[in-house]
Design a protein that fits this description.
Number of strands: 15
Largest sheet: 7 strands, mixed
Radius of gyration: 20 Å
Distance between the termini: 70 Å
Shape: globular
CATH topology: Metallo-beta-lactamase, Chain A
Structural class: alpha/beta
Strand content: 25-35%
Order of helices and strands: HEEEEHEHEEEEEEEEHEEH
CATH class: Alpha Beta
Number of helices: 5
Helix content: 25-40%
Strand order of the largest sheet: 1-2-3-4-5-6-7
């Protein structure tokens, strides 16, 4: 019995050490890859579109008369609330939130907008209901269950704004871009921007890197798009140049 107990303890100890080392390794890799992020500072970007910076992530706020629509929710509700106050925007005036996906740094401040309708891709629901997880057994979660699920290419009208959901999986199973009024394309973590051109995000962050790269072709063929807004790498007002392939 003592020998069996000793083997169990040794095996358990080895498993714990391996898990701790794996966690440390992932944490170091995460910090290293995040150095590539280049979020914008809080302010007005263009027309009726504002950006909020929360550490390493951006959320975008679109004004429609006296109401606002938010795309993604960054990480820290206290920081987001503080930055929105600088812009003179009350979270209570946000009537809708569109999530590109449900990773923690895109849903962390969702609690600020509990009066708003919540939209996300139908395919993304499996990231929060236990069906799929991004890293090992670690799944995503959000603090609400009253979300509205969107099909690929489904259009939602909010006030004077038209939102078209464009499924582009890879980063997560339901990663979705939103084309607003056939002009402004919000891509979340589908692509990064480097020297004005779309590029892959660090593969470390993708669930399926091969699929993520394939989804770039979806982003390259959005008729009418003029702008691209990313979650961590700023924006461009020259869509055609950004999506053009190098010869």
């Amino acid at each position: 019995m003592n020998k069996i107990l000793k083997r169990v303890l040794i095996t358990t100890g080895i498993i714990i050490v391996v898990l701790v080392l794996a966690f440390i390794g992932m944490s170091l890799k995460l910090k290293s890859e995040m150095k590539e992020f280049a979020p914008m500072e809080t302010g007005q970007v263009v027309d009726n579109i504002f950006v909020v910076k929360d550490d390493f992530a951006n959320i975008f706020i679109i004004q429609d008369s006296t109401q606002y629509i938010v795309i993604d929710c960054a990480n820290n509700p206290a920081i987001v609330a503080e930055q929105m106050e600088k812009l003179g925007i009350n979270p209570d005036n946000v009537v809708a939130v569109f999530l590109t996906h449900t990773d923690g740094d895109h849903v962390g401040a969702l609690s600020l907008f509990d009066k708003a309708k919540l939209y996300m891709s139908k395919e993304e629901e499996q990231m929060i209901n236990g069906t799929k997880s991004k890293f090992l057994w670690f799944g995503n979660s959000i603090p609400r269950t009253d979300y509205i699920l969107l099909e690929d290419r489904e259009v939602v009208q909010v006030g004077n704004l038209k939102f078209e959901a464009i499924l582009a999986p890879g980063h997560t199973s339901g990663m979705t871009a939103y084309l607003v009024n056939d002009k402004y394309l919000f891509t979340g973590d589908i692509v990064s921007l480097k020297d004005g051109k779309i590029a892959p995000i660090p593969a470390f962050f993708d669930m399926d890197t091969e699929q993520a790269v394939k989804s770039h072709e979806i982003i390259r063929h959005i008729p009418g798009a003029e702008y691209i807004f990313t979650g961590h790498w700023g924006y461009t007002d020259d869509y055609q140049t950004a999506v053009a392939k190098n010869d």
